[in-house]
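Task: complex structure prediction.
Instruction: return C-alpha cells for all chains below.
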Amino acid sequence: MFGEGLVDEVVTVTEDEIAAAVRLAWTRLRLALEPTGALPLAAHIAGRVPKGPAGFILSGGNSNFETVAKLLTS
Amino acid sequence: MSGYIEEHAAQVRRAAERIRGHVRRTPSLGTDLDPHLRLKAECFQVTGSFKPRGAFNALLALVESGRRPKGVIAVSFGNHAQAVALAARTVGVPALILIPEDANPTKVAATRALGAEVIQEGINFANRERRLREVMAERELTLVHPFDDWDVIHGQGTAALELLSDDPELRTVVAPLGVTAAGKPAASRPWPARRLRLRTGCVRQRLGSVRSRSCSARDWWTRS
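Output:
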C-alpha cells in the first residue's frame, strides 16, 4: 500500500544527545518538548543534519514530568 | 512516480482544507541557535502533538463520505489517543482507547478528560493489537489507525505543507520517528513531505528522520 523511498536518510541519535536536546529545548527555546519531540534537535546537536536551510518538526509536548525533571537536573 | 506524488500531494491539500478550524496552524519559529533552522512547534498543536491532523482528517473524511461510525477505537501510548478522543468528541461519536498499563499517566488523564473511554487493564505492548481486534469486533467500532491509513497520513502531511509554505527555501525536513514493531523504519508513512517537495519544485530538498539509537519497538508506536 505504501510507497517506499520517500525518505532520503535516517540518522540515529544517542540517549545522551536526546537528553541534551531536551535541555536545549526547555532552557534556550522555551519549548516544553517530550524526549521524542526533541529528536531533530538531538540530530542537530550531534551534527547529523545536512548543512543549509532545514525545517524541524518538533512534536510532541506531552512530557512525563518525572523524566523531564531528571533530564533537566542531570 | 510523479503521478503518485501528485495524487498524494493533492490529498494532503484536501486534508488541510478539511481540518482547518479544528487544528492550529502552529508557528515555524526562527531561532538564534542557527539562522538556517525553522522549528515547526507542533508542541503547541491542540492536544500537544501533530496527531490531531491525522485523526481529524480520518474522522471528517468518514463523515463526509456518509460512513459516519457508531464509534471509534484506537490503541496508543498517549498522543494518538488524545487526538482521536478530541476528534471523536468534535464529530459527536464515542471513542474507546486502549492504552498500555505502563503509559505516561498524564496522557491517560488527558485522554479521559477529552471524553474517551480508556481501557488499560491487561493491555501491554505485546498484546495490544490482539486486544484491539477483539474489542473492535465486540463493539462494532471503527479503527483509527495511528499510521497505516491514508487519511491519517494525508492529515499528518499538513504539518510539512505548512512548514514548506512558510519557508519554500528549505532543503531538509527533519521529523522524529521510532521503529515499527517489526523493526522497520516508518518515517515515510506519517510524513509524505518529499511528495510535497517535488510539488513545490524545491528539487534539492531532503527529507530526513531521526530516531533514538536505543529506541525499542514500544517507543515507536505513538509517542512522537
